[in-house]
TetR/AcrR family transcriptional regulator (Novosphingobium pokkalii), 221 residues
Amino acid sequence: MAETRIAPAPPAPPSASAPRPSKVPKTERGRRTLRALLNAAAEEFGEKGFHDAAISQITARAGVATGSFYVYFDSKEAIFQALVRDLSGQVKDFVGPSIAAAPNQLAAETAGQLAYLNFVRQHKEIYRIIDESEFVDPAAYREHYTNSAARIAARLEAAAQRGEISPGNSEVRAWAIMGMNVFLGLRFGVWGDEPPESVVQETGRLLAHGLTPPAATDTPA
């Protein structure tokens, strides 16, 4: 029987009121200032949430003049939107090398989980920011998850073709793995301090064998 595939979800339409993207700095000094603003925004939004955060506090945290903010962003909404995409990129860049260095796909998924847990422990604010983006900027929220799932699905599809994992619907599997990663990060990255290595040891068994019990061994009569 031919494999049934689920069509990818269509991208969310951009909001008519979406702010303009940040201006791209042309100098190293400008790039440092932009980085300082995004880091400060992560602290401000992570501590206070979107509605209570203030541009004046973001610039104070960044150590730049308030006027410098408007060189790069038009509004608080604009820097929040840029921050969501920046955090998504940071996760990808942090996790990517661990996945690429793994010897096979099952090892790659657990290596990615371990790297993600370590990232979350360093950036716990990511959960509040991403969760708020569902209401502040739904398009960025959807983009964050659909892009992540697409990367996982592509890895799984390639691994299935290489014979490293069983064939199946890569999109469904990708969203299932991503969902597991998200809540592992919440429980063991944000809320808990259990060693990440012990967490991914268990999830590695789950990915490799599912919940099926081991086959009973024959015993001599």
Q: What stands out?
A: Residues 37 and 67 are 12 Å apart (CA to CA). The chain has nine helices and no strands. Residues 77-209 form a domain with the Tetracycline Repressor; domain 2 fold (CATH 1.10.357.10).
